[in-house]
Amino acid sequence: MEEPREPQSDPTIGWTLGADGLPRVAWLILAVLLVGLGVVLLLVGYLGYGVLMALVGAAAAVNLL
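Above: the chain sequence. Below: its structure as tokens.
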């Protein structure tokens, strides 16, 4: 005789990543800070880190669309 299974939880309920997981204001602040940091790093000569920070900031800004 089989034991009754526990009910499965709904996969659409719970914490999610992306714009739904954080408020849009938080994504905006994060994107502005990262792009700003990238620009500052580019200005002082850190080419690789500056580009990386700008790209990460752009990725954060995607959540605002």
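Residues 24-62 form one domain.
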